Amino acid sequence: MGSRASTLLREEEIEEIKKETGFSHSQITRLYSRFTSLDKGENGTLSREDFQRIPELAINPLGDRIINAFFPEGEDQVNFRGFMRTLAHFRPIEDNEKNKNAAATEPLNSRTNKLLFAFRLYDLDRDDKISRDELLQVLRMMVGVNISDEQLGSIADRTIQEADTNGDNSISFNEFIKVLEKVDVEQKMSIRFLH
Amino acid sequence: MGSLLQPQIKALRGLFCILFVLLLCCFGGKCELQESKPLEPVDSSTVKPFQNHNDEPQAFPDMERENLPVFTMDYPRIQVPFEFTLWVLLASFAKIGFHIYHKITIWIPESCLLIAIGLIVGAIMHSVKEEPPAVLNSHVFFLYMLPPIVLDNGYFMPTRPFFENIGTVLWYSVVGTLWNSIGIGLSLFAICQFEVFGLQDINLQENLLFASIISAVDPVAALNVFEDIKINEQIYIVIFGEGLFNDAVTVALYSMFVFFADMTVVESTDVFLGIARFFVVGIGGILFGVLFGFAAAFTTRFTHNVRQIEPLFVFMYSYLAYLVAELFGLSSVLSIITCAITMKYYVEENVSQRSCTTIRHVVKMLATITETLIFFFLGVVTITTDHEWNWAYIVFTLVFAFIWRGLGILVLSQIVNPFKTIPFTFKDQFGLAYGGLRGAICFALAFTLPDTINRKDLLVTASIAIIIFTVFLQGISIRPIVEYLNIRRTNKDLNTINVEIHTRTMEHVMSGVEDLCGQWSHYYWKDKFMKFNDRILRRILLRDNRAESSIVALYKKLELQNAIDILDMPFGDVSAAPSIVSLTDEKKETSRPKKKFLAADVRKMHDILSKNMYKIRQKTMAYTNKYNLPDDSRTREILIRRHTSIRRSIRAQSFRERQAQNISQAQKYYSLQPGGDLESAFVLRRRSHGGSQLDRLSDHLQASGVSPRSSSRSMLPTNRLNTITEVRNAADQPVPSFAKPHAPEQRGPEGPSFTGREPPVAAPRRHSSNRSNEEEGGQTEPVPPPQLPPPRVWMPDNQDTGENGAGNPLLRQSSQEFGGSKRF
């Protein structure tokens, strides 16, 4: 079934990933073993079904969106680099990183990037705006069946109203950042990866 | 609500009274009825009038002596089963009664209520000088009443969190119980040395024995309270596992100490032997459990023709595991638990859906009724036994039980916290310690104390006292205390709706990503085990060993197949799902007047959101709620909504497997010409799938969307639950069906190089390709915005047909055929 991609992770790759994402060596190898175990087709990339095979993800209300976030625009396979790149968003922000010089490119797990990840969960069409419909879709996924559409609609209206400062009836990324400024995003969107 | 309850409560009271009276009559009446029996055979055998062998006056008049008795009553014959049934019914009525007024069970745990009712019944029985049934001897309890409870615990144990945290669980249950027993035993022995209390004839072994009895805690009852305060899954599973395993440890310790209690002198070799025996008992029990579990799994492999008796195997094998372990003196509790855990995974895949449901229901039913009976009898027996009360012993028992449990949890947590990813906070530890109610095991073991112990009555009284004390006091107070400790600091109204929604989104994302990453340290072993499982075990034990996606397994487990059947019924009045007309309407309005939201509205919104938004990771708790079957309604809702996207992957997957197995048959699809016969193509596809359940499922799903035969089903714009897909705005709708022909052409160049991966690849690509279509204006027809409500439901269906891999021609056929008839 196609060419067998090399399943061993080379040192240079580990170094590159380390530089790009900030994970430690052992974290990368551990996540690599997880990657390979998910990769049932054993060709070095994951497809959507590989993700959907995880049962907890199947019953996560936002499961589809999360899976989508791993796949870059229009693609259906993700290799290990891409996998790590997405996971890098969830690395906890360490103190010594906060003082990095501004010249360096913003690390993937900065607060802004974390918020961007969350923003992109809503904003499927990548127009940098969360429209009312997009909001409604996510809301509908997250609530039970007992809420009527009118109620959900007014909740969505209220959400947009609270956040929208320039009156375009949608939430832009900056408005999103502003509305969540008091929330401890660094802590909420971080996983303690085992060393 | 009051008026609604009144007749029900009155009816129940009436029922209670009738039942009481009936019971009393039975007890009271049996003496009279027994004596009437010898009269009858005498009457019928001889013809002698006026002579009877008894001295009392004749019961029957002369003329009836030779005739066939028209109405007889023979109570002694049915006495035992009759009384048993009545007791069970009485306890069940009590349970019904509690739940009528829902609020009661929130504040007072069920065990309290049952004991209370038992006390009342006991008082009544005592006043009529009646003895309670001899339910509580060792034989009946250990052979009949304990197995269902433990089977329930084992069967509904959430295995993944359990095995992830198994170290912690074992640590707290085994070491904790040992700590408790030895600590309490030693301190009580110290107390006994004081002459003033008059307890000097209780020696060390007996104290230890008693201590082992009362260290069997049943914290599961407190779990209901912990659920409401968003307790961490790890802590939850530790509490659950502890309750489970310390039953096993207690029983093992008990048997050991009973043995010691008979000995006058205990040497150090005996202690070592005791420890060795402990391990033998534990490991032996587990081995037997695994053996019988595999046997059960293997048996169910062949039961597809005798579906009616499938549930029987589960029960018989687990009971057998229990009995055989008892035979060899091994830990029967561990045996039956491991049997259930081992068996469950394989059996639930082999048996039919109905058998699966039956098994679960019966397990729950047996466990609930047995536990109910135990608590009930606790109440009854409290009144009717002869008690020996010794203030000092009992008070000190209570004090030491509290102290040692608290200390134990503290020390154990300090030791084990550095090794854990999520350490236990003091609040958690307090919850763990305070939730240590004593339960059924403690009570039963107390009654099975051997009579050789000279202060047995005192020990029994002390046990009962501590059980009642902990159940009532701790049970009732734990909820207010825990809620007090968890007062939210932030005032909810200060949170904007935005914050509430977005933080919940983030939490869901995080739990999803965590599950994705598989965060546990025993991962290496689990991986090895899963490989072993897939390669060897599944082949042997499962009838239909296809590497199914666990999602399909989930579907089957949740009986979603039935749900989808209902959804597909014509004019099925399905849902729960409200209509989504407003969605398309909104889009058309460009300018909407800004609604004014009052503070009251906002508060109401907060309220709605907090009640209805899905909490994260509830599944563990749903499984361990002791009195109910696991609640999977939320899982169902989510899965039904996602079922189209999941269906896509199921079919892609099944296709891929087929692909690997018979390429040649697949080729037939590709060669199907556009004018080809759709029907034959479908038949072909159906046949190729064989009869597996997976394929039935996917076939069914596919058929519901596409098949020409099930036209009645596919025609309607079903009010499906709003299946969510990756559809953007209504305006940007990916093309409806009749614009599909573009898609296959786009895939044209890739057609021949068809690999198994194509199908899923095509679908998302079509999104972007279709969008690019729209932008280029390459559409043949303008895309009218769909009028009917759930466009997003149908869109994915049509897309699904595209990538079922059965080729472009099929897709084009179906879309053209149905393009007109479907309600676009």
Task: Report what the structure shows.
By secondary structure, chain A is mostly helical. Chain A folds into two domains: 12-89, Recoverin, domain 1 (Orthogonal Bundle); 107-189, Recoverin, domain 1 (Orthogonal Bundle), CATH 1.10.238. Chain A is built from twelve helices and four strands; from the N terminus they run H-H-E-H-H-H-E-H-H-H-E-H-H-E-H-H. Chain A has helices at residues 11-21, 25-38, 48-52, 55-58, 63-70, 80-87, 95-98, 111-122, 132-142, 149-163, 173-179, 185-188, and strands spanning 45-46, 78-79, 129-130, 171-172. In chain A, the strands form two sheets. A two-stranded antiparallel sheet of chain A has the order 1-2. A two-stranded antiparallel sheet of chain A has the order 3-4. In chain A, helix 9 packs across helix 10 (149-163). Chain A is globular, with a radius of gyration of 19 Å. Chain B starts with a helix and ends with a helix. Residues 26-53, 488-492, 571-592 and 660-824 of chain B have low confidence and may be disordered. The chains are: A mainly alpha (195), B mainly alpha (824). At the A-B interface, helix 2, helix 3, helix 4, helix 5 and helix 8 of A face helix 20, helix 21, helix 22, helix 24 and helix 25 of B.
